[in-house]
């Protein structure tokens, strides 16, 4: 199979960084990867399309919104879908078709093209009973919140047993009363 690349000049790298500096989350799809030039991380895909992964990252942020959590943690949380899709054709079909349906329901610019979180959430409410949505949401519970690097953002110190238990570590602090 021969891949034909569009040779019309796009924006320069300098312009990309200039535009991205003031924006919130700017994800760039390039080849087989999703990149965040502003925050210097990337996620390579093996089975799913990089556009699909970029949509899953945005969807993850909309399902479990935490402004203080960087996109890279959401990317790590949805990476498992790419890994599972590499081993399971049915899962790959579920995710690719689910994202295609999400984009179709979102209109001309697709899901990521919707400018407001409220618009994206309205589309997600339309599909919340589907196996696709349930698979993504279910994977996020573990994939996002089991990352130890995220815990300090939420003020969670981790398990307490090895440190003497919660009773000796502030369980009875009631400064909020």
From TrEMBL:
Q: Which PROSITE patterns would you find in this protein's record? A: TAT
* Official protein name in the record: Twin-arginine translocation pathway signal
Species in which this protein is naturally found: Kumtagia ephedrae
- Enumerate the InterPro entries for this protein: TAT_signal (IPR006311)
């Amino acid at each position: 199979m021969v891949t034909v690349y569009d040779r019309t000049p796009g924006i320069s790298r300098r312009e990309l960084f200039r535009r991205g500096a003031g924006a919130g989350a700017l994800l760039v799809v390039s080849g087989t990867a999703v990149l965040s030039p502003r925050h210097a991380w990337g996620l390579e895909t093996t089975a799913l399309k990089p556009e699909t992964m970029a949509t899953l990252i945005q969807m993850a942020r909309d399902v479990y919104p935490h402004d203080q959590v960087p996109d890279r943690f959401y990317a790590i949380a949805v990476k498992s879908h790419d890994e599972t899709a590499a081993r399971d054709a049915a899962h790959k079909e579920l995710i690719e078709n689910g994202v295609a349906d999400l984009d179709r329901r979102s209109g001309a610019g697709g899901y990521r093209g919707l400018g407001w979180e409220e618009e994206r959430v309205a589309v997600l409410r339309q599909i919340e009973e589907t196996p696709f949505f349930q698979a993504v949401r279910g994977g996020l519970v573990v994939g996002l919140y089991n990352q130890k690097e995220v815990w300090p953002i939420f003020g969670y110190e981790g398990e307490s047993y090895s440190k003497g238990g919660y009773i000796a570590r502030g369980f009875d602090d009631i400064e909020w009363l």
